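idk why but the lab printer keeps eating my pages so im just putting this in chat instead. protein + NAP:
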Amino acid sequence: MFSSNNRDYNYLVKFHNEVAIITGASSGIGLATARLLTRLGTKVVLAARSQEKLRQVSRGLSGSLVVPTDVTKERDVKDLVRRSKEHFGRIDILINNAGQGYDSSVEKIDLKTYRRLFELDVLGPLIAMKEVIPIMRSQKKGSIINISSGAAIMFLTGASPYTSLKWALITLSRAAREELANDHINVSLVYPYVTLTNFERNTIKAGVSRGEPAGWISQLPHPPDTAEYAAKKILEAIRRGKAEVFAHDWMQPIR
Ligand SMILES: NC(=O)c1ccc[n+]([C@@H]2O[C@H](COP(=O)([O-])OP(=O)(O)OC[C@H]3O[C@@H](n4cnc5c(N)ncnc54)[C@H](OP(=O)(O)O)[C@@H]3O)[C@@H](O)[C@H]2O)c1
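predcted complex ->
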């Protein structure tokens, strides 16, 4: 049974000299998280496809390691974990953050696109988890943070390709949390709200349009968040070991 209890993992994660893998570290929430964790003394592994961007980011982040990674490729994800472990000797934190949106009606979902996004939003995080779990178990500590989305827990027409994948990540994470509790491996979900990053621009849109982001975002009942705000929520998840961290309390579903 899934338990939403908060566990105090303060004794597990001290941040200073810890090692964190962050996927999607070249932009947005992943980049802001890499900067925040580095300020706390964590050594970060920067993973994404854009090698040049990662190298630029790395110059400003003391002790960081760049591992160009396409999360849709099983071998890349396995190499990411292997190289991180070889370089630092340990892995304390995994942040499965890389992701992309896909808006379409169910009828118009392009199967090839959906399969690719399944590999990015679900399978990649799963492979990364499978690779780090034995390492974290042998360390008797670890923190896995999976970035879902507030959209996944809402009913939204025209967004089901994305929300269904982020929902799959929720159920994998909840099960893993319970399965790994005795190994002192914490698994948490973070649910960002609309956040000002390249996400909306990168979202694949198949016949569904909310119009220009500046237009619909200005009409939201709550203003959008910054990437730095979302990064603080990720930090909260690592620090407090909470099962689920919502960007805002009002996002929490009534249980
Ligand atoms: N922004 C929002 O409103 C919002 C809301 C809820 C949830 N989220 C979630 O938050 C996470 C971060 O998104 P963001 O807002 O920071 O968006 P973003 O600015 O578009 O960043 C996405 C990151 O994912 C990486 N990425 C994309 N495809 C990849 C692949 N195949 N392999 C490796 N990395 C890949 C990108 O790097 P490269 O292109 O260099 O590979 C980039 O670093 C995502 O999981 C997203 O679903 C965002």
